[in-house]
Amino acid sequence: MVHSFTAEPASQDLRHLLEEQYSGRMLHSFASGETVDMGPQDVWVVCRGIVQVGTLYTTGDEALLGLVYPSMPFGLPFTLIRPYQAIALTNIDVMKLSLAEVEQSPLLSQSLFHHLNRRLRQTEALLAMVGYRRVEERLRHLLLLLAQEIGQPQGSGTRLTVRLTHQQLANTVGTTRVTVTRLLSQMRASEWLSLDRQRHIVLSESALRSLNQI
Questions:
Q1: At what angle do helices 135-150 and 106-130 cross, to 10 degrees?
Q2: 166 contact partners, CB below 8 Å, separation of at least 6
Q3: What is the DSSP letter of 90?
Q4: Are residues 14 and 42 both part of a single domain?
Q5: Cα–Cα distance between 171 and 180 in angstroms, integer?
Q6: Listed residue (72, 62, 55) closest to 121, CA to CA
Q7: Same domain, 28 and 109
Q8: Residue 213 has pLDDT above 60, yes or no
Q9: Which of 58, 76, 93, 154 could disulfide-link to 159, CB 3.0 to 4.6 Å?
Q10: Do residue 15 and residue 57 come from a single domain?
Q11: CATH number, domain at 114?
């Protein structure tokens, strides 16, 4: 049910709206790694967890297009990219609405627009990352962006609450998994980042000083 929404301050207005208008609608649950089957008129809203959206190249390589957090919408009506896939990065609960339902509710449309704007800002930041020539700069830029999006204060640093594989990071910055592994090792050696007991990346205080440059 809708009451399982993550209670984050930025999500409260949309959460309350969905609870009021769709209180009897069941949520769809997916385990980490499962693919969300999207129809052409389906509008999905994340209630709990994080969804990874991406595409596949003809070579078979994957490209990460963005991360969708609680209260953010995703679905085929919002993209021209094909193929377009959505995979649960963590265990997730999502609600499925139809595009017609969204269009018929000005309040719902306005609320979703706010969260689509968050998606747009994230996408622009990922596009800006591509402009860096050196792979190391692209990787640092990506990690700082993730710190803003899914970071959690921990000591004097910021812990990324989701574990991305070296391959996922490599796909995003346009390099190989081996290169990402080497660069992360160098960043650990310079104390730009560290790993906690659960192998989550923790960006150091010195790394966080670069956040205002994103």
A1: 150
A2: 177, 180, 181, 184
A3: S
A4: yes
A5: 10
A6: 72
A7: yes
A8: no
A9: 154
A10: yes
A11: 2.60.120.10
Instruction: Give the residue carrying structure tokens 């896939």.
Output: 85
- Answer yes or no: do 13 and 62 share one domain: yes
- H/E stretch holding 115 reads helix 106-130
Contact 37, 84 (CB under 8 A): no
Cβ atoms 45, 72 nearer than 8 A: yes
pTM of the model: 0.73
Are the CB atoms for 74 and 68 separated by under 8 Å? yes
Task: For strands 62-68 and 51-56, give the pairing.
Answer: antiparallel
Same domain, 63 and 144: no
- Tens digit of pLDDT for each residue in 90-143? 889 999 999 999 999 888 888 888 888 888 888 888 788 878 889 999 999 999
Q: Identify the DSSP state of 26.
A: P
